[in-house]
Design a protein that fits this description.
The complex is a heterodimer of chains A (115) and B (110). Chain A is mainly beta. Helices cover 0% and strands 51% of the residues of chain A. In chain A, strands 2, 4, 5, 6, 9, 10 and 11 form a 7-stranded mixed β-sheet that branches. In chain A, strands 1-3-8-7 form a 4-stranded antiparallel β-sheet, with no helix packed on it. Chain B has 110 residues and is mainly beta. In chain B, the strands form 3 sheets. In chain B, strands 2, 5, 6, 10, 11 and 12 form a 6-stranded mixed β-sheet that branches. Chain B has a 4-stranded antiparallel β-sheet with strand order 3-9-8-7, with no helix packed on it. A two-stranded antiparallel ribbon of chain B has the order 1-4. The radius of gyration of chain B is 13 Å and the shape is globular. The chains are: A mainly beta (115), B mainly beta (110). At the A-B interface, β5 and β10 of A face β5 and β6 of B.
Chain lengths: 115, 110
């Protein structure tokens, strides 16, 4: 089945630094990947849709200059949290799939803690 | 806009008890409906899905039926196990965008 790998699984960084999170589709090509954010004990909120070879589409209220998304190949999308602040601490999850009526596969998530 | 509402947890059950987690949705059109499970520190795993009215999704003893008339997709399991302890998310998807419920934490005691 479709496998999505996300790396790193957790990261701690200092305020003001940038952090990059990778999302890879291991056994299929994904023209579209999605990035979600999950606050503690809350649901997932879609941040942006990552399209291979073009600019990402951000949801309302998500700062595109802060959350940089790059989808350079059919198997890799990256989310870079720039100038991180403690309020950016969260669980970030990517997903990808072949579309249609099939459910998308989710990565294992990245827990970001900004200190 | 579209939304998904599921019962708040936590839900605490004894092993072999019957489980129901309620989920209702609002949508324009006819979305596909999903249940995902999240174990501690992990991402989401697809548990089951249904793509049209009256479809029943099932997996690992869990079932949910797509009820258009009540706009519901309740999750049920006849006999839960300790290993079922996790957070369960109900979700709808129209074209490509998922709408998730807030999640229900299930704790099963031995």
């Amino acid at each position: 089945g479709a496998v999505v790998s996300q790396h790193p699984s957790w990261v701690i960084c200092k305020s003001g630094t940038s952090v990059k999170i990778e999302c890879r589709s291991l056994d299929f090509q994904a023209t579209t990947m999605f990035w979600y954010r999950q606050f503690p004990k809350q649901s997932l909120m879609l941040m942006a849709t990552s399209n291979e070879g073009s600019k990402a589409t951000y949801e309302q209220g998500v700062e595109k200059d802060k959350f940089l998304i790059n989808h350079a190949s059919l198997t890799l999308s990256t989310l870079t949290v720039t100038s991180a602040h403690p309020e950016d601490s969260s669980f970030y999850i990517c997903s990808a799939g072949v579309g249609g009526y099939q459910g998308y596969t989710f990565g294992s998530g990245t827990r970001l803690t900004v200190v | 806009g579209d939304s998904v509402t599921q019962m708040e947890g936590p839900v605490t059950l004894s092993e072999e008890a019957f489980l129901t987690i309620n989920c209702t949705y609002t949508a324009t059109g006819y979305p596909s409906l999903f249940w995902y499970v999240q174990y501690p520190g992990e991402g989401l795993q697809l548990l089951l899905k249904a793509t049209k009215a009256d479809d029943k999704g099932s997996n690992k003893g869990f079932e949910a039926t797509y009820r258009k008339e009540t706009t519901s997709f309740h999750l049920e399991k006849g006999s839960v196990q300790v290993s079922d302890s996790a957070v369960y998310f109900c979700a709808s998807r129209g074209t490509y965008k998922y709408i998730f419920g807030t999640g229900t934490r299930l704790k099963v005691l031995a």
